[in-house]
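Comment thread on ticket #2218

A.B. wrote:
> Attaching the input chain for the structure job we discussed in standup.
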Amino acid sequence: MRTLSRFLLAVPLIAFSLSGAGCGKSEPLYPVSGKVTLNKAPLTGGIVTYLPDESKGNKTKFSPSGKIDSNGNYSLTTDGKTGAPAGFYKVVVNTETPGMGASTPPGEPGKAAPLAPAGAVKIDPVYKDITKTPLAKEVVTSGAAAGHYDLQVQ
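C.D. wrote:
> Ran it. Output below, let me know if you need it in another format.
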């Protein structure tokens, strides 16, 4: 009888766990890293943000992002974990650092680009606006060719 009682208590817990409720079920993430260039030279700072392109079926709730290092390299993280969910994204690049003169989040629709803080590399504001950016990428589950996630801005 004791075994049956334990089993009956365990069934709801197992069902609850498998449903994803309460355990922070997340989408699988895939490695995304690339290089950002400005006039064929590495962009030496900023943030790259991938915003889900719902018009191409990407319904993820996440917007993976990554800092651009001094060599122009970036790697995306999603909710504190390395990688990004698969799917199509519009990509924005912001060279302002939040809290240092940037008054508008990167890619906020309908907003003018914030003024760059002293020393920030200025790029065309079109790359900062989700409604205007020409940059788009597909995060693939495997076999991304070298340079697949590289970005060029002006």
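A.B. wrote:
> Thanks. Noting for the ticket: Residues 27-153 form a domain with the Immunoglobulin-like fold (CATH 2.60.40).
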